[in-house]
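Following up on my earlier thread - several people asked me to post the actual chain instead of describing it. Fair enough. Here it is, all 411 residues.
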Amino acid sequence: MGTSYIIDAARTPRGRGKLGKGALTSVHPQELFAQVLRALPQRAGFDPREVEDVMAGIVSQVGEQGANLARNAVLAAGWPDEIPGVSLNRFCASGLQAVNFGAMAVGSGAMDLVVAGGVESMSRVPMGADGGGQDGGNTQLRKRVFQVPQGISADLIATLEGFTREEIDGVALRSQKNAARAIEEKRFARSLIPVTDPATGAALLAKDEFPRPNTTAEGLAALEPAFVALGSAPAGPNGETLDQIALAAYPHAKEIRHVHTAGNSSGIVDGAAAVVLASERYVKEKGVKPRARILAMASVGTEPLLMLTGPAPASLKALRAAGMDARDIDLWEINEAFAGVVLQTTRALGIDPDRVNVNGGSIALGHPLGATGAMLLGTALDELERRNAQTALVTLCIGGGQGIATILERV
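Reply from S.P.:
Thanks for posting it. Predicted structure:
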C-alpha cells in the first residue's frame, strides 16, 4: 500500500446542541458540512473538480441527516455534480472512520484526492432520533448479549477499574483548563471555519461555544451522578434493571458505583469537520506540500456490554502495524466520551497523562458524534506543528463494543 497524505484539515466551531439556544441550531446539517467543503479548496489549494469522493460520518441518519447527507452537502457547497458522496455510521468513530476509508482509497491507488470527515447537528437531530437505540430492538440478539446504555458501561468500567469520583472529576477539570488555555492562545485558529447563516451570510459562530472555563473541582463534585435512575430502570425480559443486567455479566463488581455526571461526560454540540487526503501520485504531480501522512489505522471489536474499552486494543493494533509502541507517540487524542474511558485507556497503555488531550477534549469542547473523529485528527495535527513534534495517535471508543485508532506523522 502506498502513502496516504493529509493535505489539510478544517472544522466548524462547536455550538451548543440545544435547539434555539446554540449558535448553530438554525443551520441545516447539510449546510453545516457544506460550509467546511466550500472553504477547503482555497485553504488547501486544490480544484474541487479533482475530488473523487466525499465521505461523511453521521450517527443519527434520519430526517435532516438522512438522504445521504454527504452527497447533498456536495451539492449545497456548489461543487461539481460529478463528485459523489457517501454517508457512513460507525457510531462515535464515524468521522475518523470516514478519514480512514479515504486514506485507504488514496493509499491503495484507487483514488488520488478524497475529502472525508463528518457532521452532527445534535440540536436538530437529537441523539437516538433514528429510533435504533443500541441494538435496533432485536430481542433475539438480546438473548445473546444485552447491550446496556453507554452511561451504564462507563460507570461499570470505573467500578471495575476502581476509579474514584475525584479521579473522574479530575479528568473533567483538566479538560476544561486545557481547552480554556487552547482557546486563549488561539491554538484552534488554523482549523476553524467560522459559520455563517446560509440565507443571509450573517456571522453565527467563530469560536467554540460549549467550554466552561470557570469550572472548579468543587462545582464538579456538587453534580449528581447522571445514570442512577437509568441504571435502576427495568429493561430485561423478567424486569431486570439495567444495573442488574450489567452486574450479571460482571458479578465480581458486586455493585455499580455511578460516578459519571454531566460535568465529566462529553457535551452535546453541533459541528462539522473534514480532512483532505491525497495519494503519493497526486502530491508529486501537483507539487503539493502535505502536512502529514497516515502511518497506520486500526479498528477492533471488544466485549459489547462493557463496550467502551476499545481504544486500548485499537491503539495497540495500530502501533504494531506502524512498528511502534506507546512511548513513540508524542501526542494522544483519546476521545472524552466519558472521563473513565480516558483513565482506562491511559492506564492500560501506560501513557504519560501530560501527552493526552493537551488542548482539552469532548468533556470541555463537546462531542458532535459523527464529526468528532475528524475534529480530533485536525486538533492533533495543529498541535504537532505548534510543538514541532512528529507523531500523534487519535482513538475513540465506540458503541456496541468497538475501538478505532489512527496514527499520523508530520512530513
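The mean pLDDT is 97. That should answer part of your original question.
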